[in-house]
Sequence to fold (500 residues):
Amino acid sequence: MAKAKSITTRAENYSLWYNDVIAQGDLLDEAPVRGCKVFKPHGFGIWENIRDFFDKRFKDTGHVNAYFPLLIPMSFLSKEAEHVEGFAKECALVTHHRLRETTDSQGRKTVEPDPASKLEEPLVIRPTSETIIWHMYGRWIDSWRDLPILINQWANVVRWEMKTRPFLRTAEFLWQEGHTAHATKQEAIDETLQMLDIYAEVAQEKLAVPVIKGRKSARERFAGAVETYTIEAMMQNGWALQAGTSHFLGQNFAKAFDVTFQTQEETRDFVWATSWGVSTRLVGAVIMTHSDDSGLVLPPEIAPVQVVICPMWRKKTEPDVVEAIKSAAHEHAAALKAAGIRVRVDDRDNVQIGSKRYEWERKGVPIRMELGPRDLESGQFFSARRTGGDKFGVPFDGVVEAVQSELAGIQAALFEAALKMQQEHTYKVESRAEFAEKIESQPGFYLIPWGGDDADEVAVKDETRATIRCFPIEQDSVEGLICPLTGKPAVEWAIFARAY
Fold:
């Protein structure tokens, strides 16, 4: 685990606090490549649980998993103009397939690309997979009978970001990307919105992160999409985080890769497409939604360890009592495990109980249960919630039911606290001057009856660093309202915020 040190408070420096929580929670380590991270077991365990929830929901709705190559011919990206423009500055290339040993001027052995191994065409390390997938779909689709194709892949991608932040924006990250092909426009639109609903459900029910579903502005749209839909979450500092996106691609990629099909009417048409993805930035969303100045706080649904049992005794405790304590801890842990609860017994005898408490608090384990000689006699664990509150007893008799109830309560309380925070930090303003002042002094979601165009959106961003996060799907009427940021008649409600 990371060496114990104090955690910077959120009020003191939110960015440093975030990095400290990650380090003290033992989630990541630095890789020897700029912008890349090593997922340590506790950090990867969070992602595994998130991944498993999504994977089940995808399969429940008829999707299947596949895998496509990491390396993509560079020429593929140029086939869809908006796509290449959107990703060109982030692409990493493979130009050679072999190294050769050489000796420098000081006689030291080194390696360099072998000029004889230069590739005829450079290969792009995938920033996203639309191009390679639509190349393959061109082979697989000929008739309406081949549709729909509902494929998802779990993969890594590389986007050579200039400014990185753990989990939120790294050069390499893990994600899922769904790519579907349909016979009709409406079927593709329905798919796009269905996946957005799944993203929102998992975020709220499992991550305890409240989100707003909406449509992106043209400027914020995925490169090559007709429409991009998003779930937007609010972090504790009032900034927004795009937590997942679902794209209606129209026929753009089908046209770029000449993917047509014979319709039931025996004509030929281009296929309709979607793509959608969430990534390991969701771990960052969990950290910044729930954690506190003592470290990581994890919702029970995604915590790798939901309950830690800490047997405790003094040096003078009789050996038979120590064994009885350990035996009881493991016996009840087995009962919890059999009920599907992720439990760990920390019976290390070379670590003091105070250090154990500190470590598991930093790792965000929802419930800590301690068992000493007196607890053994009384027949109950002395327990504490990571989210605070009074210590409480958990009786041996009925331990499974008691723990399940506590975990459910913690999960619900975390969501309610986050939702309350979002609601209390959602504002309206009367003028652009008021907006410019308040977005600086009280960051949050600003609900604006928007009447601007792309140029207006750019101007607001340049002045305030705030962007349109989305046009909420659930909309009240803006009839008769004037946009306070442009002075023009409002067209629809928009949420502005500063964002990661």
Remarks:
- The mean pLDDT is 96.
- The domain at 307-422 is CATH 3.40.50.800 (Rossmann fold).
